[in-house]
Amino acid sequence: MTSPALDVALSYHQAWTGKNFEKAMTYVADDIVCHAPSGRLEGAEAFRGFMGPFTQILTGSSLLAAFGDETTALLMYDTATIPVASAPGAEMLTVREGKIVELRIIFDRTPFDAARAAAAGA
Amino acid sequence: MTSPALDVALSYHQAWTGKNFEKAMTYVADDIVCHAPSGRLEGAEAFRGFMGPFTQILTGSSLLAAFGDETTALLMYDTATIPVASAPGAEMLTVREGKIVELRIIFDRTPFDAARAAAAGA
């Protein structure tokens, strides 16, 4: 089964996990709506401000599962980051005309909050 | 495309979101390994101790996406709970002989921690 949405989602994923965030942004629609743990983000610049800093602390990643159909892709992956050794995430991506128009991302903020608190207290 | 893993994953999901946790447990292998935000859980009883209490605070749910192949299913859903109005989750389930042998669940613990802290301070 071919999945246009999965093709775009994987291209985006490979770009940002490969530390090529500017290439990743080429798959992001200008009017993207992102549902993140911290809330709703609208537009590519807000999305850049959310995901860009994360790619700066990324040290590794592995894709655990990836599926998709005509319009929707679903990914689960693990990441290694400077503050948190294992930070898995899941994304549901809606793709229209080759661009990601909606992205719902789930991850656990708790270890990031703990690392930030530890750094502040150090 | 038929997916034996997705069939089992959806039966499990419908059971626990339908407040029939004992039926949900019939899809769980005795030797399940669960990767949760709080760490690794081994065995059906440990898994029951993790998911059972969550179903007690569940007030609603909606399945956002579900895909699968022969052995693996991937789900994303939103839940409403007593302490947290919107608590989305994602699960990757590995199925063998009709039972879930491995389940990786991702959700954000932060709002649950905040609700617990607020309740303790009330």
Automatic annotation (TrEMBL), chains A, B:
Protein name: Ketosteroid isomerase
Domain of life: Bacteria
Any one GO molecular function term: isomerase activity
UniProt xrefs under Gene3D superfamilies: 3.10.450.50
Keywords: Isomerase
Organism: Amycolatopsis regifaucium
Domain (SnoaL-like): residue spans on this chain: 12-102
Pfam family, any one: SnoaL_2
